[in-house]
Amino acid sequence: MDNVVNIEVDKDILVGRAVGRRICRGCGATYHVEFNPPAKEEVCDLCGGELYQRSDDNEETVSKRIKVYLEQTQPLIEYYFQKGILINIDGKQDIDKVTADIEKALKGKA
């Protein structure tokens, strides 16, 4: 393994992203009530299907998932940092900026 990318995002932001997610029952398209809303509330722009919130996309469940992730991931982050192959990326940015930062960081490490 040459590089490991760690996308850093505050817990509150992650919870908000997951809780706001909506999925189309018809085609599976993904929306977000704040960041990527459909043109018509609760209706898919692509197929006109009904949008729904996954049962596990609630604050309590998402918070638990994040806690477990952090507990299990922190030792790996430290391990890869010590090996000098960890690349931390600011995940609070727009998705296109995050992608660009990852590509730039990996090109710089090649």
Give the SSE map.
Blueprint: E1 4-8, H1 11-19, E2 21-24, E3 30-32, E4 51-52, H2 59-83, E5 86-90, H3 95-109
Parallel strand pairs: 1-5
Antiparallel strand pairs: 2-3, 2-4
Helix pairs in contact: 1-2
Q: How large a portion of the residues is in β-strands, by DSSP E?
A: 15-25%
**Sequence stretches where pLDDT stays below 50 over 5 or more residues:** none
* Helix and strand composition category: alpha+beta
Give the topology string: H per helix, E per strand: EHEEEHEH
Radius of gyration equals 17 Å
How many strands in all?
A: 5
Largest sheet: 3 strands, antiparallel
Number of helical segments with 4 or more residues: 3
Side by side, the strands of the main sheet go 3-2-4
Distance between the termini: 12 Å
Average pLDDT for all residues: 94
Overall shape: it is: globular
Number of individual domains:
2
Structure explained in plain terms:
With 110 residues, the protein is an alpha+beta fold. It folds into 2 domains: 1-19 and 58-110, no CATH class; 21-56, no CATH class. The protein has helices at residues 11-19, 59-83, 95-109; strands at residues 4-8, 21-24, 30-32, 51-52, 86-90. The chain has a 3-stranded antiparallel beta sheet with strand order 3-2-4. Helix 1 crosses helix 2. It starts with a strand and ends with a helix. The mean pLDDT is 94.
